[in-house]
Amino acid sequence: MRKDILLVKHCYDINWAKELNEILGTIFLDPFKFTEKTYLPGRTQQMRYEAKLIEYMRSNKITKLFFVNYTDDFSNNFIKAGFVKEIYGILHSSNNQIGDVGTDVRLKDYENGIVKMATKLFTNSQFLSDYIQTPTIALGLPINNDFKKPNMSDKIIFNQRLALEKGLNSLYEIDEKYNDRIVISSPKGNLSCIPKLKNKFKHFYFKIPYDQYQTILSQCGFVISFANLENFGTSIHEAITKGLCPLVIRNDTTCHKEVIIDELLFDDVNDLQNKIDDLTNNPNKKRELILKQQAFSSKYKKDNYIKNLLEQL
Fold first, then answer.
1. pTM score, two decimals?
2. Pairing outcome for strands 156-158 and 64-67
3. pLDDT score, position 136
4. Is residue 82 packed enough to be buried (19+ CB in 10 Å), middle (13-18) or exposed (0-12)?
5. Residue 195: which residues within 8 A CB-CB, separation 6 or more?
6. 257 burial class (0-12, 13-18, 19+ CB within 10 angstroms)?
7. For residue 295, what are the contacts with CB-CB under 8 A and spacing of at least 6?
8. Cα–Cα distance between 277 and 261 in angstroms, integer?
9. Among 106, 157, 202, 259, which is disulfide-ready with 220 (CB 3.0 to 4.6 Å)?
10. pLDDT 10s digits, 203-218
11. Which domains does the chain have, with CATH numbers?
12. Whole-number mean pLDDT of the chain?
């Protein structure tokens, strides 16, 4: 544990931030515990939190920081305070990535400047690291330690945002014979596409409670992704830990080839449907590939991730 390093948590109300705050709060100094009311959609809460951290650092002679979300939450106020000597953090995206939903090309120069101020930075994938204008270490993100046994259900889930960068339009290309097997369970996204998706897929869920989503996920045996921009694939990895078989599009604009085994990558919708048919008709092959992917993904297990992170500090 590194209780000499103060954790700067991310205050935005998004699940990955909450989970990462909790995990990193067990290994770094975390003097201000968050509640649900702590998480707000805007920047005001982060600024108040930052002021409390600086005062805590001054009072307790802390000189090292670790940012849960470095690009968004880095602040010159920590530098101007005068006593910060070491800065660490995680980069989840880059303004050098054209097409990312969070990209703002006006901030490229700002990002390229602040990343050089850090002592050491970590990313979700080597794919993302290649966009960062300073050396970084690709660690992935932590996922559940417990992997479930292979799920042999023939149901297919799409569990990502309803957004163009998640390959939304490819859902409309899927042959009708798969419609009854496909489940759409999306946490957020483009509202205008919902009527068309509901008309095509009778199993459609949007912004449902987490427990209900977990139940639906556990009833599926495949998870699919058409994403054309991805730096890790949190929802896909969650499904992998639950024993689902991931089928993910092969491209050069995501980290897919880095995090998913080659046998589970597809080239287009026709190739996806062929793989679904093959693995549905050959359950032993499906089981073997799920276990192979889980073995490949085990480096991201929470305990392994923490071990790798601490070794790099």
1. 0.93
2. unpaired
3. 98
4. exposed
5. none
6. middle
7. none
8. 19
9. 157
10. 999 999 999 999 999 9
11. 2-138 (no CATH), 156-298 (3.40.50.2000)
12. 94
HSE (side-chain half, CA atoms, 13 Å) at 214: 5
Span 85-144, pLDDT tens digits: 999 999 999 999 876 666 777 889 999 999 999 999 999 999 999 999 999 999 999 999
Which residue in this structure is represented by tokens 């209780």? 3
* Burial letters 153-173, b for 16+ CB under 10 A, else e: bebbbbbbbbbebbbbebbee
Amino acid in the structure at residue 275 = K
Work out whether the CA dihedral 140, 215, 248, 170 comes out positive or negative: negative
Are 300 and 306 a contacting pair, CB within 8 Å?
no
Q: Are 6 and 29 in contact (CB under 8 A)?
A: yes
pLDDT of residue 65 exceeding 90: yes
